[in-house]
Amino acid sequence: MDPPVEPLVASADPATAPSHTPLHGRYTSLVPLQPSHAQAIFKHLGREENAWRWTYLFNEPFLEFEQCEDTFKEWSVSKDPLYFTILSGPASDPSSEPVGVMAYLSIVPAHRRIEIGCIIFSEQLKQTRAATEAQYLLMKNAFEGLGNYRLEWKANHLNKPSLAAAERLGYTYEGTFRKHMIAKGRRRDTAWFSITDDEWPVIKGGLEAWLSEENFDGDELDNTFFCATSSFLVFPGLPIHASRDLVHWKHVSNAFSRADQLPGLAFLPKATSGIYAPTLRFHEGKFYLLCTLVNQQLPRTNDSRWDNFILTSTNPYSSDSWSDPVHFSFPGFDPSPFWDDDGKTYVSGAHTAAYYPGIMHAPLDLENGEIGDIIMPWDGTGGRSPEAPHIWKRDGWYYLLLAEGGTRENHMVTMARSKSLEGPYDPAPVNPLLTSANDTSSYFQAVGHADLFQDADRNWWSVALAVRAGGTYGQDPGAYFGNLPMGRETVLTPVTWEEGEFPVFTPVTGDVSGWPLPTEAIPEKGEGQLSDADDVITFPPGSSLPIHFIHWRLPKARNYAVSPPDHWNTLALKSSVLNLTAFDADFALGRGQTFVGRRMAHSLFKFRVDVDWAKSLTKEEMEVGVSIIQDQAQHFDLGIVMLRPEGVEDLRPHLRFRGISETPYRATEHPPNEVYLLPDGWAGRKIALQIEAVNSTHFAFSAGLAGPRQDSDVRVFGHCKGTELVPYYSGSIVGVYTTSNGKHGEQAFETYISNWQYTGIRQLRSQKDVDDADSSRV
């Protein structure tokens, strides 16, 4: 029997040897490496702070420019390796500059074999489309341009980022050559990977799909900013907003849109419980959102107080795309992921004790939630409640950003850095880097809890939290009596971050200047509207509730119906037995309250709906109305309610204005409970109910006959003050409710809401804005 042999190849002719021919893509170009490129490469990859980037390469780091220049002269004439310079954009773009190097090597045309290697990327290239496209261009040319049968990738077995990149690009791991060579005086084991010509078509298809204009990752991601925000006790939660100009933010999805993702939200007590600060990151084609569901009633020593979880998506424009949560055991909150150069993922978070011992790090498997040993690298600068950590690695340093000082008047942003992830961390020479404490000039106060990001031009920006409370905010003991009904909002400010230095934040004011803003169009994709858009909702048949409509905790879905039969263009609401205060102004035992609303998005606004109530309210305390609610202990309502006037047996429809404003720090001076017999001529007719922010300090509650939208058609039945809607964290909500106020059971009646309108009138960004608005609307 003849021994087995391989089949004959289609062609035994040698492959074409590679040449210095430029390779052009949509996002980058590979051009022949020239000595003139040394200056730009040294800027990005030279000096001591970048020495770590050369750890696994054969060359020593470029500590001096002359060393870089001499090496580039040698590389420019080398044939194997054959070096290419990676540009930051297409060669046709005059602003494109050298940002990396890669090469063909181990070139064996006779056996149709070639390797891609000698790769070094600047920070500007990492996790970008250009980085993937640079690989794709060399891979495609190796097979289709040069006719190779085999493409190789070799890496030090300790170089985890390189090993991960090989697998992501489609290479097959073949094994590790033990004690393969001596490199820089050290024994090296080398991991081998390969792609063959018959595998290339499938791999090519995957890479081209990722780079396609139709793929949001490929075409839009680098030009689109995504922001996730906390949502505490409302549902849907964890709203995702997208922007391409950093000014107009579109609500594109809700990461928490299915009740079974976090069913425990229904049972949480206390206004300070719920979904805390999320961190949103994009890594290797996937969005990761890490967050905590907090039960503030449990003691801090009970780890079940903190339910930490991971949500993922490959399409943040779709609520349905967000995964079910992967839970992980972590004794704290504010989790933030970090991918180190060794390929490992770590999570940072605030310790359960809140005050000490500070910040925690631990390895974390994002797929299954397995967590490693926890270390405590830094406890901050001495401010209370070190929390909200984020880590960046730049110029060989690990930078650790924190919030300290609590969430109110002493809120601040601090930072430290270390050469090791584990520490020790040295604080910035001047901390805090950002705060409004002791600054009476800014209308925006309590600035802190920041994150950092870069735009497409590599300019740095920060988002942070702040409240519109005015310069006297710090004079309020504990800051629980101020006028800030919009709660904590996300603000944006420019940052300068020079190589080897700590970042410099621009102070947060109502209007800031700094880097040029991007000029891209508003994203077309996504499910919602702009964050500051008005509402004109007619509830057409076949529609559903807009994604910016929210409920207090998890709703009973059966209590809401859009455009039901015989009531087209309405929102049908079936009553809950509980009202918005519920049992004790704290929680609802999972029973739900029929309420739907939207966030107050303007300093001055008007909210109005029409109510079809006449055939529905038949028993005592049946009520439908509008409310502005901060939490169950802070809300004011104007409702149509059935009551018995004093000395009268029959039930009559009334308008009732009442409210509650109680916290552990204060109680309402005179809780309103004002009852008015429905005016003559209103019985049996649709009634318009309205809430308006009439100035910076007061809200008016009005009612009138439904019809043309004229202010003169409504009468004012009550007022509340902004100081009676003081947030723990989030802002006020305006919306509609139906309840039997503890009587008659669930779904005792059904009412119909139509012509939902929310109109933003003005944003107040400075004390001058406040003074002007108040003087013009007295």
Automatic annotation (TrEMBL):
Q: Where is this site: Important for catalytic activity, responsible for pKa modulation of the active site Glu and correct orientation of both the proton donor and substrate?
A: 334
Biological process, per Gene Ontology: carbohydrate metabolic process
Q: Which residues form the N-acetyltransferase domain?
A: 30-172
Recorded superkingdom: Eukaryota
Signal peptide extent = none
Q: Which family does it belong to?
A: Belongs to the glycosyl hydrolase 43 family.
| Name of the featured protein | Beta-xylosidase
A GO MF annotation of the entry reads: acyltransferase activity, transferring groups other than amino-acyl groups
Q: What is the lineage of its organism?
A: Eukaryota, Fungi, Dikarya, Ascomycota, Pezizomycotina
| Domain Beta-xylosidase C-terminal Concanavalin A-like, first and last residues per copy | 545-745
Sorted alphabetically, the keyword list is:
Glycosidase, Hydrolase
Is the keyword Hydrolase in the record?
A: yes
InterPro entries in alphabetical order: Acyl_CoA_acyltransferase (IPR016181), ConA-like_dom_sf (IPR013320), GH43_C2 (IPR041542), Glyco_hydro_43 (IPR006710), Glyco_hydro_beta-prop_sf (IPR023296), Glycosyl_Hydrlase_43 (IPR051795), GNAT_dom (IPR000182)
Stretch list, region Disordered: 1-20
